[in-house]
Design a protein that fits this description.
alpha+beta; Aminopeptidase; 2 domains; nine-stranded mixed beta sheet; seven-stranded mixed beta sheet; 12 helices
C-alpha cells in the first residue's frame, strides 16, 4: 500500500497533521480502511482491529490513545501507521517495544514523505520499533531510519497432498496483475488441464519422498493434548534458560492467550506436550480459512532447550492434524533445533524474511546489533500470520 517516498517538502498550504489517534477517531479510521481495502476490509473490521489495537494487554488502559499514528490533510485521513506494543526480553532485561504494522498512504499523496514521517513519529515514540513482514516501500523507509537489519527468518514448507482445486486456485492467484503469466495459466488450465492430471503425479512423488522420513515420523514419546487456553505452567517453560536465543518477544500466559484467542476469524488450535508429567513444549496451529489457499500453519512452536524429541513429536502431530485438510504446511522459526527437526520431517526452506529494528538509544542499539542471530522469531510475531484471501 506504499509508494516510493522522497524528501520532497510539502507546499505550505498542504502540511499534513501527524498525531496519535484516539478512540474518538475509530469510525473515521474504519472508513479509511474500507476505502483502501474495499470488500476485503471485512477481514480486518471489526474483530481483528479491536483485538490488535484496542484489546492489547500492553496498552495504557487509563489513556484513550491508540497505537496508531495518522496523517490528516484538509480534514481527511491520508495515511496511517500502526503498532502492536509488546515486551521485549533482552537477556534478563524486559523492555517496552512495538511491532510496526499496517502502513498505508493514499495514492494521491505518495512521494511526499507521508510514510516516512508517520514511521519516524511512531518509531521515536516507542523507542524500539520492529518490523518483520513488510513491503519494499516500507523496507526503504526502515533503511532511511537507520534500522538494524536482522538475520533472515526462514519459512519452511511441506507439501502434504495436492488436489486439483488447490492447484487451480494457486495458479489463478499467482496470475493476478501479470498478463504474461495470465496467458500461460490459461493454456495450462483451460487447454492442457494440468491442474487435473498433475496432482496424482505429485502425490506419488510425495509418497516416495515420505518413505525417507519414516523414522522421524515414528516413535513419539510425548503426550500431546489440546487446550482451550494456556495455564500457569507455561511461565515455567519460558523461565528455563535456552541457549539458542537471547532476544524474544514475551510469551507469558497473558500474551499467549491474548495472541491466540482475540481475533474471531482466525481459529487457532493450541497444543501442549508433556513427558514424565512435565510440560516440555507447545505449538499453535491454524488450518486454512475457506477463502484462503489450502495452506496450514505451525504458527508458534517451542520446547525446552536441547529437546528435539519434543519438537519432533509436535511437528509430526502438526503434519497429521493440518494434513487432513490442507495441501501445504508452513512454519517459520529461527530456532536451530526446530529447523533441524523440520528438515528431518520433509520441510524445505521456501523463503527468507529479513526483520528490521529501530532503536533510539545508541548503546542499546549496539547491544541489539551484537545479538543479531540470537533472536527467537516465528509466525506468531508481528501480525505475520493473518488471513489472506485467495
Amino acid at each position: 500500500m506504499l509508494g516510493a517516498e522522497t524528501d520532497a517538502g510539502w507546499p505550505s498550504k498542504m502540511t499534513p497533521l501527524i498525531r496519535q489517534a484516539t478512540l474518538s477517531d475509530r469510525q473515521e479510521l474504519w472508513d479509511f480502511i474500507r476505502s483502501v481495502y474495499g470488500d476485503e476490509a471485512k477481514y480486518k473490521l471489526p474483530d481483528r482491529w479491536n483485538w490488535e489495537f484496542r484489546d492489547n494487554p500492553f496498552l495504557d488502559k487509563d489513556n484513550d490513545g491508540l497505537p496508531i499514528w495518522i496523517a490528516k490533510l484538509e480534514g481527511r485521513i491520508i495515511g496511517q501507521m500502526c503498532a502492536i506494543p509488546v515486551k521485549l526480553q533482552v537477556g534478563v532485561e524486559v523492555l517496552d517495544a512495538a511491532w510496526g504494522v499496517d502502513l498505508i498512504v493514499m495514492p494521491d499523496v505518495r512521494g511526499l514523505g507521508v510514510g516516512f514521517k508517520l514511521n519516524k513519529a511512531i518509531a521515536e515514540h516507542y523507542g524500539i520499533f520492529m518490523a518483520l513482514s513488510m513491503s519494499r516501500g516500507t523496507r526503504r523507509i526502515q533503511e532511511r531510519l537507520d534500522c538494524l537489519t536482522l538475520d533472515p527468518v526462514p519459512t519452511f514448507a511441506r507439501l502434504v497432498k495436492l488436489d486439483a482445486d488447490s492447484l487451480h486456485r494457486y495458479v489463478m492467484k499467482r496470475r493476478q496483475g501479470r498478463p504474461k503469466l495470465n496467458r500461460i495459466a490459461k493454456i495450462l488450465c483451460e487447454y492442457l488441464f494440468v491442474h487435473r492430471w498433475l496432482p496424482p503425479v505429485v502425490n506419488s512423488l510425495i509418497y516416495v519422498g515420505s518413505l525417507r522420513n519414516r523414522k522421524a515420523m515414528k516413535g513419539a514419546q510425548s503426550e500431546i493434548q489440546e487446550i482451550d487456553e494456556f495455564a500457569d505452567d507455561i511461565e515455567e517453560l519460558w523461565r528455563v534458560p535456552n541457549e539458542q536465543f537471547d532476544v524474544a518477544v514475551s510469551r507469558n500466559r497473558l500474551v499467549l492467550n491474548w495472541r491466540f484467542a482475540g481475533d474471531g476469524r482466525l481459529r487457532y488450535r493450541k497444543f501442549v506436550a508433556h513427558r514424565d508429567g512435565k510440560l516440555r513444549g507447545y505449538t499453535v496451529l491454524r488450518r486454512s480459512d475457506p477463502v484462503e489457499l489450502k495452506v496450514g500453519f505451525i504458527v508458534d512452536i517451542f520446547s525446552l532447550a536441547n529437546d528435539e524429541q519434543t519438537l519432533q513429536d509436535l511437528v509430526v502431530h502438526a503434519i497429521r492434524f493440518l494434513g487432513r485438510e490442507d495441501a501445504v504446511i508452513q512454519c517459520a522459526t529461527t530456532l536451530p533445533d526446530c529447523q533441524r527437526v523440520l528438515s528431518k520431517c520433509g520441510f524445505r526452506i521456501v523463503k527468507r524474511t529479513e526483520p528490521t529494528c529501530f532503536c533510539a538509544d545508541p548503546k542499546r542499539k549496539k547491544h541489539l546489533q551484537e545479538l543479531n542471530g540470537r533472536w527467537f522469531l516465528t509466525k506468531a510475531d508481528q501480525d505475520w500470520d493473518q488471513l489472506r484471501p485467495a
